[in-house]
Design goal:
The complex is a heterodimer of chains A (116) and B (116).
Chain A lengths: L3 E4 L2 E4 L5 E7 L5 E8 L3 E8 L6 E2 L6 E5 L5 E5 L8 E8 L11 E2 L3 E5 L1
Parallel strand pairs in A: 2-11
Antiparallel strand pairs in A: 1-3, 3-8, 4-5, 4-9, 5-6, 7-8, 9-10, 9-11
Chain B lengths: L3 E3 L4 E4 L4 E7 L7 E6 L6 E6 L3 E5 L2 E6 L4 E6 L8 E8 L11 E3 L3 E6 L1
Parallel strand pairs in B: 2-11
Antiparallel strand pairs in B: 1-3, 3-8, 4-5, 4-9, 6-7, 7-8, 9-10, 9-11
The chains are: A mainly beta (116), B mainly beta (116).
Chain lengths: 116, 116
């Protein structure tokens, strides 16, 4: 049972290049999330998907797009990378619908992205 | 004012002592609170969650919640060097119905070092 799997683990891009970060979960979770983590900033939500077929903006969506390909997979795309997007990106998933207080998010190992 | 605030530390505690980590939040309607541990270069992992006023204990860890003061804390008893990590406080956002997704707002994290 792999949990939440992110690819790639590391990536270096030049300004203006595009790329897609992949995320897949095998826990049959409904909801999935993309965060970025910068030093001293904690985790900030980029986009999330409450369920298959739905996506919505989080706190810092500018410069990103997402696709919820199916229940398992949620990808994050940078169309034209900028140095300000240098960060560590985490994908997470959580189980059930509804507002159960224990609706815990489980994180992938992260993608370390540098934009030069 | 940030929605979730933590002292970024570093907090240095001798081995065997009690480590006390604190978090304040601004949304008085928040109801679910989470503590994640993150080792350097790794992803966040859940330690505990709490949603009722008072204390919740799990082994060496105790979460404390005071909704009137909008304050949540994590106590680590008998601190071990393996507890050295960054501890992230997260609060579930109360707002428009998100149809199952659980939006969390994270503090910036407190870096804890346990000295042998």
């Amino acid at each position: 049972n792999a949990g939440v799997t992110q690819t790639p683990k590391f990536q270096v891009l030049k300004t203006g290049q595009s790329m897609t970060l992949q995320c897949a979960q095998d826990m049959n979770h409904n909801s999935m999330y993309w965060y970025r983590q910068d030093p001293g900033m904690g985790l900030r939500l980029i986009y999330y998907s409450a369920s298959e077929g739905t996506t919505d903006k989080g706190e810092v969506p500018n410069g990103y797009n997402v696709s919820r390909l199916n229940k398992r997979e949620f990808s994050l795309r940078l169309e034209s990378a900028a140095p300000s997007q240098t960060s560590v990106y985490f994908c997470a998933s959580s189980p059930t619908s509804g507002r159960a207080v224990g609706n815990i998010q489980y994180f992938g190992a992260g993608t370390r992205l540098s934009v030069l | 004012q940030k929605e979730v605030e933590q002292n970024s530390g570093p907090l240095s505690v001798p081995e065997g002592a009690i480590a006390s980590l604190n978090c304040t939040y601004s949304d008085r309607g928040s109801q679910s609170f989470f503590w994640y541990r993150q080792y350097s270069g790794k992803s966040p992992e859940l330690i505990m969650f709490i949603y009722s006023n008072g204390d919740k204990e799990d082994g060496r860890f105790t979460a404390q919640l005071n909704k009137a003061s909008q304050y949540v804390s994590l106590l680590i008893r008998d601190s071990q060097p393996s507890d050295s990590a960054t501890y992230l406080c997260a609060v579930r956002v109360i707002g428009p119905k998100i149809q199952g997704a659980q939006k969390l707002v994270f503090g910036q994290g407190t870096r804890l070092t346990i000295n042998p």
